[in-house]
Amino acid sequence: MTILVTGGAGYIGSHAAVELLKSGYNIVIMDNLSNSNFESINRIRELTSKEFPFYKCDLLDRDELVTIFKNHDIEAVLHFAGLKAVGESVEIPLKYYHNNITGTINLCEIMAKHDVKKLVFSSSATVYGNPDRVPIDESFPVSATNPYGRTKLMVEEILRDLQVSDPTWKIALLRYFNPIGAHKSGRIGENPNGIPNNLMPYITQVAIGKREKLSVFGNDYETHDGTGVRDFIHVIDLVKGHLKALQYLDSNEGVETFNLGTGTGYSVLDLINTFSLVNKKEIPYQFMERRPGDISICYANPTKADKVLGWRAEKDLKEMCKDSWKWQTDNPNGYDKTTY
Ligand code: NAD
Ligand code: UD1
């Protein structure tokens, strides 16, 4: 039995692939490499000393997807593939809706045709919109403020409808908080194209001298130091949650939603200071206006995942900072531009 990993060349998918292979699963990876590089596939093979099929293929290409399901005895799908840049989603919403929603519908239709009905979907804490309190649990109301967030909300709803129409589907909706960090080896990590949107890759690029200084968006939030608070979670802890979700789906039909976060909120300044301390690197920064669309405080109540899946995050902020920095220093230019 084999697990199909969509988006497996990307940041989270590549870490999941390593974890799956290490745990004895067979995998197939498909990715159109629109936001990733074939070199990550080489690195997954190198880290695990295991071979697996890779398809450079688009979720929008139904014929190619069918080929994958015909060629392999797929048992379940970890579905990471999607576009994820909030700002870009505002500029090109149709592309986001088409890619993330049509792509997922294609996948589910072809899964159903091949009687594969076990799915783990990468959702996001962004579906909680601007929550009126923290910690956030899975019963909180959901909303979205941008097209990216709406694709996550819509896909969650589509998957619920699908499961109502055919109760033999087994679906886990995993709402990620803020994944950072990288594999301990420094061989795989987050590889943003151009100027990073997210905080940790920006910090590491400042630390290595690629960018002059970090802009801290807002120091007038109602938090302990005025800067935004987030639930940073090590990517390895995050992907371990996927393996637990897969095991859970072996014996449970239905749709279940799980927060994947640590349950602790740290501010932007906490992250900068911890990074500087553990890596002995000053991070020059300046305070700027708040970034439109940002919320003040966001962190998870992760107890459902603990109780139901037997999963909890184990790695602390120091380890996240160390591992992100090792990835950046060992790969100053991310993955070399290998073509496929
Ligand atoms: P990523 O961009 O590194 O990985 C996504 C992968 O999907 C990329 O390799 C990309 O080439 C591929 N892809 C995109 N559209 C595709 C398509 N139509 N067909 C085939 N491949 C396609 O992103 P990531 O950080 O690894 O995120 C993985 C998933 O988790 C995404 O769905 C994202 O929305 C979700 N998520 C990420 C975060 C985060 O902070 N990184 C937070 C919450 C949710
Ligand atoms: C962002 C997205 C969210 C998405 C998530 C993962 C927005 C509004 N939200 O979450 O939908 O699910 O990424 O892809 O884009 N910060 C700075 N300077 C920077 C970058 C960030 O101060 O250069 C601050 C932000 O204001 C925020 C915190 O750092 O307070 C975290 O930002 P980021 O890493 O972008 O994640 P989120 O905004 O939480």
- Briefly, what CATH class? Alpha Beta
Query: What number of domains?
Result: 1
- Kindly identify the CATH topology: Rossmann fold
Bound ions, cofactors and other small molecules, one mention each = nicotinamide-adenine-dinucleotide, uridine-diphosphate-N-acetylglucosamine
Structural category is alpha/beta
CATH H level: which superfamily?
A: NAD(P)-binding Rossmann-like Domain
Give average pLDDT, whole number.
97
Order of helix and strand elements from N to C terminus: EHEHEHEHHEHEEHEEEHEEHEEHH
Share of helical residues: 40-55%
Question: Secondary-structure map with pairings?
Answer:
Layout: E1 2-6, H1 11-22, E2 26-31, H2 39-48, E3 54-56, H3 62-71, E4 74-79, H4 86-91, H5 93-113, E5 118-124, H6 147-165, E6 170-176, E7 178-180, H7 199-207, E8 214-217, E9 229-230, E10 232-234, H8 235-250, E11 254-260, E12 266-267, H9 268-279, E13 285-288, E14 297-298, H10 303-309, H11 317-330
Parallel strand pairs: 1-2, 1-4, 2-3, 4-5, 5-6, 6-11, 7-10, 8-13, 9-14
Antiparallel strand pairs: 9-12
The structure holds nicotinamide-adenine-dinucleotide (NAD) and uridine-diphosphate-N-acetylglucosamine.
Overview of the molecule:
With 340 residues, the chain is α/β, with parallel strands linked by helices. It has helices at residues 11-22, 39-48, 62-71, 86-91, 93-113, 147-165, 199-207, 235-250, 268-279, 303-309, 317-330; strands spanning 2-6, 26-31, 54-56, 74-79, 118-124, 170-176, 178-180, 214-217, 229-230, 232-234, 254-260, 266-267, 285-288, 297-298. A 7-stranded parallel sheet has the order 3-2-1-4-5-6-11, with helices on both faces. A 3-stranded mixed sheet has the order 12-9-14. A two-stranded parallel sheet has the order 7-10. Strand 5, helix 6 and strand 6 form a beta-alpha-beta unit. The mean pLDDT is 97. It binds nicotinamide-adenine-dinucleotide and uridine-diphosphate-N-acetylglucosamine. Nicotinamide-adenine-dinucleotide binds at residues 7, 9-13, 31-36, 58-60, 80-84, 99, 103, 122, 124, 176, 179.
